[in-house]
Amino acid sequence: MRDAVGSVRSVLLLGGRSEIGLAVVERLVHEGARKVVLAARGGAEAPHSLAALEPEVHSLDFDAALHETHCGIVAAAAELVGDLDVVVDAFGVLGDQAAYEADPVSAARDSAVNYTGHVSVDLAVAARLREQGHGTLVVLSSVAGVRTRRFNYVYGSAKAGLDGFAQGLADALHGTGARVLVVRPGYVPTQMSRHVDPAPFPATPGQVAAAVARGLRTGAHTVWAPPVLWPLFTVLRALPRPLWRRLSR
């Protein structure tokens, strides 16, 4: 398989300061990737842990809200490193539900980042991978989008849209040599989630990265981190709504 982990030479990270995204990049560099592009608003520097591995690192200014620039960002990344073997879509905003209810404008603004920004840039990535005839788009979804919950339904609904979009995109790319890997982590303790109460079955960024690497190696279309979330949410999706409503997390 051309885009199995051992043959990955280049990685583009959309959301160049994402702790989970950087953990995925580091894992792929450990396993042989040598060219990295970090795309983030204002650009992004490689953290020490990544720089110490001595890959070739480039930085691009990427704004999820500027949809008209997204095709150019993907093209610029390809100009820097050649074919894009893996593109990791890891940007997003994890806001506060109560704050969103008090300020609908902020809810709409963040939802646009968490959904329509991905639609725009992922379609640009898909066109590039289709043209190459190989490559994997890794989309960081969330269990929050599997079934939205009352304590974070603004964020969860955007993730639900992204998850559905990514699955449809995967089907659209079938047979082209390009593919999509959807990643569904549970609670991951990071700087972005520091204001959120911990949830059962957490995963570290490193554990999510290991799941991604395993998914690339096996050709999976979806991975859960930790894996126990798959059978758990199979049951929870069928839970009667009055019981679902009572869940605190």
Q: What characteristics describe this protein?
A:
249 residues; alpha/beta; Rossmann fold; seven-stranded parallel beta sheet; 7 strands; 45% helix
Summarize the SSE layout with pairings.
Layout: E1 10-14, H1 19-30, E2 35-40, H2 48-51, E3 56-61, H3 70-81, E4 86-89, H4 97-102, H5 104-132, E5 135-140, H6 153-173, E6 178-185, H7 205-218, E7 222-225, H8 229-236, H9 241-246
Parallel strand pairs: 1-2, 1-4, 2-3, 4-5, 5-6, 6-7
Helix pairs in contact: 1-7, 3-5, 5-6
How are the strands of the biggest sheet laid out side by side? 3-2-1-4-5-6-7
Helix/strand structural class: alpha/beta
Count of DSSP strands: 7
Strand portion: 15-25%
Order of helices and strands: EHEHEHEHHEHEHEHH
Second CATH tier, the architecture: 3-Layer(aba) Sandwich
What is the helix fraction of residues, given as a range?
40-55%
Looking at the structure, what is the overall shape? Answer: globular
What would you say this structure looks like, in words?
The protein is of the alpha/beta class and 249 residues long. The protein has a single domain, classed as Rossmann fold. Helices cover 45% and strands 16% of the residues. It has 9 helices and 7 strands. The chain has helices at 19-30, 48-51, 70-81, 97-102, 104-132, 153-173, 205-218, 229-236, 241-246; strands spanning 10-14, 35-40, 56-61, 86-89, 135-140, 178-185, 222-225. A 7-stranded parallel sheet has the order 3-2-1-4-5-6-7, with helices on both faces. Helix 2 links the parallel strand 2 (35-40) and strand 3. The termini are far apart. The mean pLDDT is 92.
